[in-house]
Model the fold of this input.
Amino acid sequence: MPDDRLVRIHSAEFRAMSQRVLRATELTSRLNVLPFDDEAGKAELFELILGRPLPGGVTIQPPFYTDHGLRLDLAERVFVNQNCTFLDYAGIRLGERVMVGPRATFITVGHPVDPGRRREWLSGGPIDVAENVWIGAGATILPGVTIGRDAVIAAGAVVVDDVPPSTLVTGVKAAVRRRW
Done:
């Protein structure tokens, strides 16, 4: 899904996406109950989930969750800790040597804020994480965000805007932004 594109719920595209979500959920359910040392079983399921083998040196510690899988692009030497979620329908790229802490969440799709359109459309944008980024435990990365090389996302941070290279971002404070 390109940036700022809306997908109508109940369209052919949405039905195809829903079918992939069911398949990805079935595959991740199987992955997440394998014995820890079943490397061959994990490799086989990751290939089905991602549509290709994991790149060299990539480590993903189950449990692992994705709603699509086919739009998750992992470079060499990526490390993903336990209990992470990748809602990758609009695309997620993790550059070389990215480290992701436990319970981190990447979300590329959402719904319009307008209540009248909320149940009719999906919106979103890809997430792009450059090389050598560290994403702390429990961080949430929202649609359309780009994170620059060598940046650090603090544990629990909610990232809604692009992050410049070589910076530390922190914080999660809910605030009223508008009313209707």
Notes: The radius of gyration is 16 Å. The mean pLDDT is 91. The CA atoms of residues 15 and 63 lie 27 Å apart. The first strand starts at residue 7 and ends at 8.
